[in-house]
Fold this protein.
Amino acid sequence: MIFFGGKDMFDPVSCTYTYLLADVDSKESVIIDPVIEWAERDSELIRELGLNLVYALNTHVHADHITGTGTLKRLLPGCMSVISKESGAQADILLNHGGRVPFGKNSLTAFMTPGHTAGCMTYVCEKQGIAFTGDTLLIRGCGRTDFQGGSSETLYQSVHSVIFKLPDNFKLYPAHDYKGLTVTTVAEEKTYNPRLTKSLEEFIEIMKNLNLSKPKMIDKAVPANKVCGLYEVERKEEI
């Protein structure tokens, strides 16, 4: 499998990581959490590599940037947008828990991991031993839980019942990092995450006292991301 991500596909404004995965033989590819300002860059890379972008996925409705999904659909006709059904957003494909997104001989399995938002999903590629956790689990942290249907108790349960149940050696790739870190593992986070190694009661108290300011883009980003990043989709399919 071809895999691009980390600092090569990074938005320094929102500290968002975008990930591009492709099947070596079929050249079918998927992109996870694209950012609208970098859609041209992403489409150029996809063309340069001779890939066929079949799906553009979002882990959730982001509050700090506008998704590049809609723009990529225009630049690369045939690409379909994907998000969870529980997100309340429009997309070509609305995923339920356990839904699969195939590309060539590879596939991603979608697991509902709400808590940061009510519609968060983690995408797992069992064959490659990797997972894309969105904002549910960050490297040595987690997403905030104070808006968009967030719940500290729900996020804690999502991490412990889904992500921490993956094999210890699985690599985890978050939607954001603010310190330049790019990848972690299940074992590392089960051991060293300063929030999620605590008891549920301690975790709730930590989250209650973060005192974070409102995201600057939230009033613009959330409405835009609910319509695929300003792109009006024409059809929906649930899988």
In short: Helices lie at 39-48, 69-75, 152-161, 186-192, 200-208, 218-225. The radius of gyration is 17 Å. Residues 2-209 form a domain with the Metallo-beta-lactamase; Chain A fold (CATH 3.60.15.10).
